[in-house]
Amino acid sequence: MASAAEQLAASINFSALSKATELKKRIWFTLGALVIYRLGTYIPSPGIDPTVMEQIFQQQAGGILGMFNMFAGGALGRMTIFALNIMPYISASIIMQLMTAVSPSLEALKKEGEAGRKKINQYTRYGTVLLAAVQAYGIAVGLENMTGPSGSAVLSPGAFFRMTTVITLTGGTIFLMWLGEQITQRGVGNGISLIIFSGIVANLPRAVASTLELSRTGALSAGFVIFLMIMAVAVITFIVFMERAQRRIVVQYPKRQVGNRMFGGESTHLPMKLNPAGVIPPIFASSLLLMPLTVAGFSGGAGPEWLTWVTAFLGRGTSGYLLLYAALIIFFAFFYTSIVFNPADTAENLKKHGGFIPGIRPGANTAQYLNYVLMRLTTIGAIYLTVVSLLPEILISRFSVPFYFGGTSLLIVVTVTMDTVGQIHSHLLAHQYEALIKKAKLRGRRR
Which structural domain range is residue 39 located in? Predict the structure, then answer.
């Protein structure tokens, strides 16, 4: 079976893709949805002076607002209807997952299967609306206090401007949440991840062009730019290697006799990824850091004293920012892994089907062994995520490189690309298997 799958994988090409009608529809739907998202990042929110906003963001491009603007695909810098992007939905998902882990009623709801999952998703949507409305109101108030060289960022401050801003930005986030769900169901890949991915990639050509321009004018040495490019390639290679790395635990199934025939006795393996949490920890960590700092950054120094302290303490590249970012990544790496992989349930399923790990007794001992292996893998994965996310941050903040395509961005882009390509590969394999089955049935009828 393995050799047959390898032969099928090797035979996949663009001609196979042209014959997979369902897959083509999914790909075109995904591309169309992403085009709609990118168009929305250029539709301005009412009551904003775009010239002043551009001046303000040029001054704060290297700060926390610049990082938020990167995740929003430039929508925040232009103050468009998608300025909040999908971040409130991610924040609401974090809160719901935390509450699921500590609330017995939500935990019981999670175990109800599909009905419970739909209910939790509904709660997450309600939380998204609430968080988006609060963040939109904070942005509206902050915008009224922001001024640039050409004047105020808001044309007509007041209650009407705040109301329209809250409605517009909240509606934009809800639309992106719906669009992401549609991509997941009817397209290829994870819709939420692809929206973040497209926002990051959209700013890449401009970032590369600005870096090369600084090299041409002499602001950056050619040697340093080459080193930066080599480092980016090295980080991408390292990410691909770590994301594909697995620990394969051997699982043995005993022989059993049914009538005069023997079944079972085969050996398989349980694959455990070196980074079980994937790209979720950096995204969650970034979302939690950006949520309070958005309001702090937009206050323009006119807010309370604690906002000014938060902005100074958690400024990009500062020790407080790096330490908190690393702590959040490590926490979410362990937390999310504990959600997606339960050693006790896995051990129980192996026991039900007669499987066992050689040298380990089934049941509690197997769960303990799996938990031991999982903790070691998660520790390595958390360190890897922290290093990849923080190393470019340190280099960029120390050398003031205007090229914000750091470790978190590379991690998101590479991981989402691998996941999407993997799903396309799976669809192609399924299509070719269906073609082989149809041919076999036709031959059987002819005989």
Answer: 2-446
